[in-house]
Amino acid sequence: MPVDFSGTWNLVCSDNFEGYMLALGIDFATRKIAKRLKPQKVIEQEGDSFSIQTTSAFRSYFVQFKIGEEFEEDNKGLDHRKCKTVVTWDNDKLVCVQTGDKKNRGWTHWIEGDQLYLELCCEEQVCTQIYKRA
Ligand code: 1AG
Questions:
Q1: Which single residue of 16, 22, 42, 82 could bond 53 by disulfide (Cβ 3.0 to 4.6 Å)?
Q2: CB of residue 58 inside a 6 A radius of ligand 1
Q3: What ipTM does the predicted assembly reach?
Q4: Residue 2 pLDDT grade (very low, low, confident, very high; cuts 50, 70, 90)
Q5: N-to-C CA span, the chain
């Protein structure tokens, strides 16, 4: 059975979100608010089709994709840069590559025990977040 990311997940810890936001050029005032947020993710996975809704008190972000199918991502409400995005499996990890103005941009999701991990990368910065089932 393949891993199933479906469910509702709450942020429990975050490391170097500040560095990640700086790499994306997010302004000071926005970073100050954003780093205090405890976002919730609702992931729906059906075969190779995914939707991920990230909700917080300040901004929210929705993305849907099929494994291996490139799409144009708008990053609306985040840094607003358009990317050519593709998500693939690396064993049980979900690996997203966001090609655009920023080098080495993307994210990886995986599950360990009852925790959902998210690694966000941009340029030299890596932010690691851990979510627990709601
Ligand atoms: C994401 O998760 C989207 C979740 O790609 C947002 C992650 C990081 C925020 C990105 C850039 C920071 C820009 C602006 C900061 C302002 C608000 C932060 C709001 C955070 C909640 C939306 C990866 C994957 C699929 O789960 O989306």
A1: 42
A2: yes
A3: 0.96
A4: confident
A5: 23
